[in-house]
Specification:
Elements: E1 8-12, H1 16-27, E2 31-36, H2 44-49, E3 55-59, E4 72-75, H3 84-91, E5 96-97, H4 99-106, E6 111-115, H5 120-138, E7 144-148, E8 166-170, H6 173-176, E9 185-188, H7 196-199, H8 202-214, E10 221-225, H9 229-232, E11 241-245, E12 256-260, E13 263-268, E14 271-277, H10 286-301, H11 306-315, E15 324-329, E16 332-336, H12 343-350, E17 357-362, H13 371-380, E18 381-387, H14 391-398, E19 409-413, H15 416-426, E20 432-438, H16 448-460
Parallel strand pairs: 1-2, 1-4, 2-3, 4-5, 6-8, 6-9, 7-8, 9-10, 10-11, 11-12, 16-20, 17-18, 17-20, 18-19
Antiparallel strand pairs: 12-13, 13-14, 15-16
Length: 463
């Protein structure tokens, strides 16, 4: 039975999620009002790519009149819930949902959901590779689907999915905060301050993230970071089986992953298996070691084979814009870590290198604390180049630097291109030049991917 035929749906936000969900619902017979505050000119390419008799575009503002006769309101991830039209929908008792909720409601196959403050995309991509290895070995006629907040809305592939497939989706706090469904395997990688400009407080942010567990059943599995104190506070949300990951072995022979004498182990169902040596992992930094431990635990929860887990890890080299090596120039290694949109992520990048570091940091603030990053800059960074809106705040947080102490130099630029040129003046053999901003890209670029691509372009143009 088609639940959408004849329904009127207001879709707020015409980015990737909004476009994908609008197309899906229109193809199911719903009448979709696709609403975005941007102008027709700004949305020209999107409108040309999405033509349907079942879709009506309303642009330039969010008029409450479009709620008349509406059965459902859907919001893209970037749409704040305090937007007046969303508040009005709640007042009128119109259900509010999003593409991830609808996907979970209609997916014919098991779903793995992965969230956290950092490491989501790397872990999701790695679990996806392990899943593909497993299906190639065990179910060659079935498929592993990877997407979600990672940039590929899975709703667009829903009609192609089979009950024996599996879906691996990255979920953000923006998506989770209104969801009333949880995936069969739900993983929380870590919980550190992030998106406080949206959620207001750390408690609200943690509450949004914990939604990934809240609606699980006793048959489902939660994968949690036992080294994270904030995550330990939400253990009570676990409804079914629990598998944890961390550096040291879990207590009382509980199911989990850990590191011992340079090797990664999986302990589950009373059995212990060595998975891989740490020096065989192609990803730099202790944060990526945690991501691999998480991926092993998630894969165990999904019953992927040990062979698939090993092969997936050994062949995985990372994803773009996450400590991505760009080139060697003037003897220095240049890295693109544009995904680092919080101070915590920038700290993780700094911890990944022992070489002298030239750090490019900045962008737009998310109302996050910068003090810890300032301490790591004093500890690890030789030359600091700040750019974007948040540069003065980082400089103020950094405080006075005594002669001879790190950072030895501090420069401020309005944009990233100027910061790259300045970094080229400092770069010398043996250095690492690292773009790990700590802030979002929205003061200068469409998203972190555009920022990363432009960084790569400007670095490759250096002569």
């Amino acid at each position: 039975m088609n639940r959408w035929n004849g329904k009127q749906v207001v879709m707020i936000g015409a980015a990737r999620q909004g476009i994908a969900l609008s197309r899906y619902l229109a193809n199911k017979g719903a009448h979709v009002i696709l609403n975005d505050r941007r102008s027709d000119d700004a949305l020209k390419s999107a409108r040309e790519a999405l033509v349907s008799d079942n879709i009506t575009w309303v642009t330039g503002c969010h008029p409450p009149e479009i709620l008349s006769g509406t059965d459902l309101v859907c919001v893209s991830g970037g749409v704040p819930l305090n937007l007046p039209i969303v508040i009005e929908a709640y007042r009128r008792k119109i259900p509010v949902t999003n593409d991830s909720q609808i996907f979970l409601e209609e997916a014919p196959c098991p779903v793995i959901g992965i969230t956290g403050s950092s490491g989501k995309t790397t872990t999701t991509a790695l679990v996806g590779e392990i899943a593909k290895k497993h299906y190639a070995l065990k179910k060659p006629n079935r498929r592993a689907w990877v997407g979600g907040n990672i940039g590929y809305p899975l709703i667009q592939d829903l009609d192609q999915m089979h009950k024996e497939d599996i879906a691996i989706m990255e979920l953000s706090s923006f998506q989770l905060e209104i969801m009333t469904r949880s995936p069969q395997v739900a993983a929380i990688l870590n919980l550190t301050p992030n998106h406080l400009d949206r959620h207001g407080t750390m408690a609200e942010y943690i509450s949004a993230k914990s939604q990934i567990l809240t609606h699980q059943s006793s048959h489902d599995v939660a994968v949690l970071n036992r080294d994270d104190t904030n995550i330990r506070q939400i253990y009570a949300e676990v409804r079914g089986r629990q598998i944890t990951f961390g550096i040291n072995p879990p207590h009382d022979n509980q199911d989990g992953t850990f590191v011992k004498r340079g090797k990664l182990y999986l302990q589950a169902d009373g059995q212990l298996a060595k998975i891989i040596r740490a020096d065989q992992i192609n990803l730099r930094g202790p944060h990526n070691l945690a991501n691999v431990l998480a991926a092993i635990a998630i894969s165990a929860a999904a019953a992927f084979s040990l062979q698939a887990i090993y092969e997936g890890i050994i062949e995985f080299t990372g994803v773009p814009h996450r400590l991505e090596f760009v080139r060697e120039w003037n003897g220095a290694a240049w890295y693109n870590d544009s995904i680092a949109t919080s101070p915590e992520r920038a700290i993780a990048a700094l911890q990944s290198f022992d070489e002298p570091i030239i750090l490019l940091a900045g962008g737009r603030d998310k109302n996050l604390p910068w003090q810890d990053l300032a301490r790591w800059i004093h500890k690890k960074v030789d030359h600091l180049i700040l750019f974007g809106e948040v540069a003065p705040l980082i400089l103020k947080t950094l405080g006075d630097t005594s002669p001879g102490d790190r950072p030895f130099t501090v420069d401020l630029y309005q944009g990233l291109q100027g910061a790259v040129k300045k970094a080229s003046e400092y770069a010398s053999p043996g250095d690492v030049v690292l773009l790990s901003p700590g802030g979002t890209s929205y003061d200068e670029f469409f998203d972190f991917e555009e920022r990363g691509k432009r960084f790569i372009q400007w670095v490759k143009e250096l002569t």
